[in-house]
Design a protein that fits this description.
By secondary structure, the protein is an alpha/beta fold. It contains 16 helices and 14 strands. It has 3 domains: 157 residues, no CATH class; 106 residues, 3-Layer(aba) Sandwich (Rossmann fold), CATH 3.40.50; 200 residues, no CATH class. It has a 6-stranded mixed β-sheet, with helices on both faces. The chain is globular. The two termini are 38 Å apart.
């Protein structure tokens, strides 16, 4: 080795050491800030709980007397402050990078376990605390901790501490979807610093964007270690689903000693992931993937049905006055009945009558036929999406308002009580759409249709009919209670906060559409819409 080579090697070693030191400092600083954020949120949640217990609950029930313990009373109980932090740490919330919804799930689990531990500590130590105050503080934490951690990580990402650099191997459609998924969630904190591909025609070209910065193809896959050093990347995502198994294993084994984490997008990346368990035969070094069909289990079906009955009944009672007013307004706005009953494909192949408020003119079929005959662009849109996304001549003036705010679907709460529908599920398809659904028909019919669903919050206005079916089949195969909670929360956000309404969108024939909610801002169908929900990595 020449003197020049030794000097270059020593410089690279020093630079690598400095990068590692800076990386560990960022990890320590981010962990410290997150711990302080969590402690502050615990204190704020307890402060609110004490206020609610002392000033609000006595007015609700005489069982709650005035003058319960003040906030400072709880400052001496170390376990009250340390147990939540302990369970947050056990759930990996200081060491793992997870997407927003995944982190909310782990936070909820950690808070519930810490509440159980706090009550156990109270029982063992015989200390006196206000149990309602503790319960209210826990409920506050489930709401406030995700918000506080989201904005903390977002701020840390803006200033550069939470950012983690990652290289993408492969310049293809799969890599493009992966980049969109990583860039769409600031809680993950990943910054794609470059793409590597063996196709020489890609070198130096812009492949995409992340965080407002262009992503360039830096070189070939053989240069991965060199590019990791130059860009400061600690992680690698291999987006080469067509790569032979031997070559993929060789890449993983080659890079693993130098990477904090390696992501691999497998050839079968469309497999169900929410219920996926990794198992194996240790003696034979064989890896197995266990796929569980949760909705095929009777207790899960019963749990979903009980939740539908409970929440459906409450919502039906709360919205009854509004439904009566809307029925009168519909009658005054245009000729025809206020309610519409349509035959739809139902659970396990049993058709049912779907109830909704009428939002179209009674001669809607004729209006649609005339409009499509004179508008070629609309006819093509109808053929591709089975709906008109911009303007639909069949929709009444009041109907546009009802669809924009999803008020036309309120009568479907009766379908829920009759066990025809669910709060969350696939779209209730028209009878004539049976053949078009194709091979996914058995999967679609294995779940009750929903008032809302996963496709409504996954780029619904940009999906073709076939893509919509794929999204809904993905939801059914990946069903969990937590996934339903995610869909419900995102539905509320979409309806209340989306700036773009569907207006006069339509669907198949007549008063056909049940999908009337405003366009979601969620990522479109693909790995960015589905698989990114539960990504995780070590920080």
């Amino acid at each position: 080795m020449t003197a020049l080579e030794r000097e270059s090697f020593q410089a690279n070693e020093n630079r690598s050491g400095q990068q590692v030191l800076a990386h560990h400092f960022c990890l320590f600083f981010c962990t410290l800030i997150l711990v302080l954020t969590d402690l502050s949120t615990i204190a704020f949640s307890l402060k609110i709980a004490v206020f609610m217990r002392n000033h609000l609950m006595p007015h609700v029930s005489r069982n709650f007397h005035l003058g319960a313990f003040p906030f400072r009373y709880y400052l001496v109980f170390e376990w009250f402050w340390l147990l939540p932090l302990l369970f947050l740490a056990i759930e990996g919330l200081y060491t793992q990078r997870r997407s927003l919804w995944s982190e909310i799930g782990y936070i909820t689990k950690a808070v519930c376990m810490s509440l159980a531990a706090i009550f156990a500590a109270v029982a063992l130590t015989q200390q006196v605390v206000s149990r309602p105050t503790v319960l209210i503080a826990g409920a506050n934490l489930i709401i406030l901790l995700p918000i506080a951690r989201f904005w903390t990580k977002r701020f840390l990402g803006v200033v550069g501490f939470w950012q983690k650099r990652i290289l993408i191997l492969g310049a293809n459609a799969t890599a493009n979807v992966a980049i969109r998924g990583l860039a769409s969630d600031p809680v993950l904190g990943y910054k794609v610093v470059g793409v590597l591909d063996d196709d020489p025609t890609w070198r130096g070209k812009c492949f995409g964007a992340c965080g407002g910065e262009s992503i360039v193809v830096l070189g070939s896959i053989r240069e991965t270690l060199e590019q990791m050093e130059q860009t400061g990347a600690h992680d690698v995502l291999i987006a080469l689903p067509g790569l032979p198994e031997e070559e993929l294993l060789a890449l993983v084994h080659r890079f693993q000693p130098y990477c904090g984490s390696i992501y691999v997008v497998p050839r079968a990346w469309g497999l169900p992931m929410m219920n996926l368990q990794v198992d194996g035969l240790l003696s034979e070094r064989v890896m197995m993937l266990k796929l569980t069909n949760n909705l095929a289990k009777p207790w899960n079906t019963a749990l979903k049905r009980v939740a539908d009955l409970l929440f459906g009944a409450v919502l039906a009672l709360l919205t009854l006055p509004a439904c009566l007013i809307l029925a009168v307004l519909i009658k005054l706005d245009s000729e025809g009945p206020a309610l519409l009953f349509q035959e739809r494909l139902g659970y396990r192949g049993r058709n049912f009558r779907c109830i909704k408020f009428r939002t179209m003119y009674i001669n809607s079929d004729k209006k649609l036929e005339q409009y499509l005959a004179s508008n070629g662009e609309a006819a093509e849109e109808w053929r591709r999406y089975a709906k008109l996304r911009r303007y639909d001549p069949r929709v009444t003036r009041l109907g546009r308002f009802l669809r924009q705010w999803s008020l036309d679907e309120l009568p479907q709460l009766l379908n829920i009580l009759k066990a025809d529908m669910s709060l969350v599920g696939p779209r209730p398809y028209l009878l004539e759409e049976r053949e078009r659904i194709g091979v996914e028909l058995p999967t679609i019919l294995s779940a009750r249709p929903g008032i809302t669903g996963f496709w409504q919050v996954s780029g619904r206005n940009e999906l073709t009919f076939d893509e919509r079916v794929q999204v809904e089949a993905w939801y059914i195969r990946n069903w969990t209670v937590w996934l339903d909670c995610i869909v419900l929360v995102k539905t509320v956000r979409t309806v209340l906060f989306s700036k773009i309404g569907l207006g006069a969108s339509g669907s198949a024939t007549g008063e056909a559409a049940v999908d009337r909610r405003p366009q979601s801002t969620a990522p479109a169908f693909g790995m960015g819409a589905c698989e990114h929900l539960y990504q995780s990595d070590s920080a």
